[in-house]
Structure formats: structure tokens, C-alpha cells
Amino acid sequence: MNEDGKKLLFIVNPTAGFGHGNNLAELINITCRKHHSASHIEFTKAPGHATELSYNAAANGFHQVVAVGGDGTINEVAKGLLHTGIPMAMVPQGSGNGLARHLHIPLNIRQALHSIFDSKLITMDTFTVNGKLSLNISGIGFDGHVTNLFGIKSTRGFIGYIALSITEFFKFREFNTEIITPEKKLVRDAFIIAIANSSQYGNNAIIAPTASVCDGLLQLNIVRKVPFYRLDFIYSIFSGNIGRSSYCEIIEADSVSIKTDIPVYYHIDGEACGLEDTFEISIQQSSLKVLVPKCEATKSKL
After folding, report:
1. How far apart (Å, rounded) are the C-alpha atoms in residues 188 and 282?
2. Rounded to a whole number, what is the distance in angstroms from the first to the last CA of the chain?
3. Contact criterion met (CB below 8 Å) for 271 and 73
4. Contact between residue 197 and residue 135 where contact means Cβ atoms under 8 Å apart
5. How far apart are CA 187 and CA 193, in angstroms?
6. Alpha helix ranges (H) inside 84-197
């Protein structure tokens, strides 16, 4: 889809993955020159800066915007591009890269840059949780609890997240919840309620194996607390078979209201959002244009 002569804005989170510096700028500039396209690089300076930059992309003559960072950076860039028609590409440089993995975008920075110029344009759904934009997966309950704690811990990365999750698993209790969709009302005890637009959190931890970003529906996976010795459940997450577990109940809807009996922590695309006891969730169909690798888009469900 990407044609020569384009003007690309690269919005880079300097604290993510590859980091900032001359090497990254050189890689971007060399790749764009090879494809006869102009590149402009902006490093984010504060929360919300990526949204400001992407929102002003059209006025500044950019044809495409490339988010370089993790799921949080991608989310911020997308906020400025919703309903604009300007495509977003991704160079995933986070710790989990959930949406990028779902869309089969290469995790190698050089491969990701080159894939921008051999891409296909899709129009994907997004959704909101209490008015906050989510592209990938948001969660209520244990995953939200760990995410909120993880944000204040000094030990980062996947290993740090797993260690914190194990410690907190024994402390965190199920909560009671009322879930209302246009078709049904459910009352359940839950450990996690995952609201999924795509299939995985990141690191190939698949919570909604059949989710699609282009079908106009969200998948809610209502997960009960699993006995710690059930290592087969952990395996089912990384093998893509969690939907078969008796500890999970997956429903589909384009909107949902959730009420919990106590305030519960939640996250949006891996970003901590604090405590709430009421959640209003609604899909925004076909609201964001995204560039994905052409070969994967033609053979895989997105």
C-alpha cells in the first residue's frame, strides 16, 4: 500500500525498547530514503505528547504516522488519528507488544521499518472503557491490580511482571459482577474480566483466541480464579487454547455495562487506570486506519 513519495511522521517514545539516539534516527532515515519517502522524527516529552503530535499530522502535511514504542505509545498516537483517515504504522518496541503481535508486525526494528513499505491498509475497530480509548485489551480485576502495582515497582520487564503476578495471586480474591450486554444479563464471580479487541495481552499470552479487530465485536473473557497448581491453565494461555478451559466464559458484544460489588482496579492496553466499580464499554467500528504487513494480512485473520 505504501507508495514512494510519502511524508512520514515517526513518533518515538525515547524510554521504550530500542531507545532514542543517532542509531534509531539513522535507521529510519536510511529506510525512508530507500523508498523515496521523507521522514520526520519526534521524540515524546511527556504523557499526551504523542496524541498532540499525531492530531496535528494532517495539518503538517504528513501522509502517515508511525508509532515507535509499546502499546501505551501506540494508544496515544491512535487517539490523534481516530476518524481522520491518516494511517498509523507501528514499530513495536515495548515489553509485550500485544497489538503488534496480533497484527503480525515484526518485532525486529529493521524488519518493522521495511514492512511499512510493503503493507496493506486495514480499517480496525477500537473501543472505549469509561470514555478512555483502548485498541487491544483492557482488563478488570487481577490483571488491572497487577498492572497498577507494576507501574510503581522498580523491577520492570516480563520477568518482573511474572514475579509480581505470582506474589499477588495468593492475595487477590474474586469479586462479584453484573454484566449487561444488548442480548443478555449475567451475574458472575470473576478473577479477571478481559475486554478484548485483539487476541493477546502481549508476549503471546492469548486471552481471546478468536478475537478480531475488524469484526465490530468485542470478546469478554470472564475468568475464575484458577488453583495455583493448574499449570495446564498457564499452558493453555500461551498455546491459544484458553477458550476451552472450564475456568473461562467468553461472550461477544458490541457494548457492555459492568457493575462490580467493590471498586476494582483496571487497565487499558496495559496502562494503569485506578479503581472503579462501574464500567461502560462500547466499540467504535472501523475507526482507525492501520498499516499491516501485506503477506500476513492476506493469509491471517486480523
Report:
1. 20
2. 17
3. no
4. yes
5. 12
6. 98-102, 109-115, 142-150, 157-169
In whole angstroms, what is the distance from residue 197 CA to residue 214 CA? 9
Written as nine digits, the cell of 289 is 486506519
Per-residue pLDDT at 150: 83
* Among the listed residues 204, 191, 102, 187, the one whose alpha carbon sits nearest the alpha carbon of residue 143: 191
Q: How many CB atoms lie within 10 A of CB 234?
A: 13
Which pLDDT belongs to residue 175?
98
Q: Angle of helix 157-169 relative to helix 142-150, nearest 10 degrees?
A: 130
Distance CA 270, CA 201 (A): 8
Which stretches of the chain drop beneath a pLDDT of 70? Answer: 1-4, 17-22, 153-157, 296-300
What pTM, to 2 d.p., does this model score? Answer: 0.92
Tell me the Cα Rg of the chain: 19
CA distance 48 to 157: 23
137-141 and 175-180 as β-strands: parallel, antiparallel, unpaired? unpaired
Cell 510493503 identifies what position? Answer: 118
d(CA 38, CA 297): 25
CB 86 within 8 A of CB 58: yes
Contact 187, 260 (CB under 8 A): no
Find the length of the chain.
302
